[in-house]
Amino acid sequence: MLLFLQILGTMFIAEMGDKTQLLMVAMTSRYKLRDIICGAGLSILALNAIAVGAGAVINRLVPDWLIKIIAAVAFFYFAWSTLKKEEEDEDEGKKEKKGNPMWIVFATFFVAELGDKTQLTAITFAANTGVQQALLVWLACCIGLFAADVIGMMVGYLLKSRTPDGFLNTLSFFIFAVFGFTTMSTAAGLLIGEGGLQWGIAGLAAAIFAVICLITKCRTQK
User: Fold this and answer.
1) 174: nearest Cα among 17, 22, 20, 65
2) Dihedral sign of CA atoms 27, 33, 35, 37 in order
3) pLDDT tens across the length of the chain (222 residues)
4) Which of 81, 74, 77 has the alpha carbon at shortest distance from 95?
5) In angstroms, rounded to a whole number, what is the distance separating the alpha carbons of residues 187 and 68?
6) Is 60 exposed, middle or buried (0-12, 13-18, 19+ CB in 10 A)?
7) Rounded Cα–Cα distance for residues 175 and 24 (Å)
């Protein structure tokens, strides 16, 4: 029981203020509570299963820089789609989204958290405790991670209900855009090394993203 509480507490603290907790805040502007809980919950179960069972193998097969690039593109896409959604809501009211929101949340959360410090923490605990404690480690990691992210989700819904219309969409846009830039910078650093070129690549990605957003804004205002 002591080991369970130690792992749970460590995962909870490690997730507080992390990008995926802020991601939950941003998700509340786009999806229903049910879809966020189910999508994030399934993603957490899968991520920790990978970490406890085969995290080391995954890290060897998939380059970390490739994971980061995928995550950066996903963040930029969600920032753009949040901007587009705001314009569509003003002109057409609520519009049905394509695809299953629960699986969109699942995929976004999964890519964002894959290889993050909380997953590495789960791998470390699993390596230290052995196979006989694998189920306990998995449960503790899942509960600790989910509890911290639920706080982020509740903050998002509180902001949604107590702030002017459009505020949470704007906040979500900046959260996703910043994560896109910083994650692309991390990917560039892993691929070519740290330095000016690393930030140049991230800046180029941000500039392309800004141009796309401007084009989208101009088209929706016509």
Assistant:
1) 22
2) positive
3) 787 888 888 788 777 767 777 778 778 877 888 888 899 889 889 888 887 775 445 445 667 788 778 778 877 887 787 766 555 544 444 444 456 888 888 888 888 777 676 777 777 677 666 667 778 888 998 998 888 888 878 877 777 777 776 676 777 788 778 888 988 998 899 888 888 899 999 999 999 999 988 887 777 665
4) 81
5) 5
6) exposed
7) 10
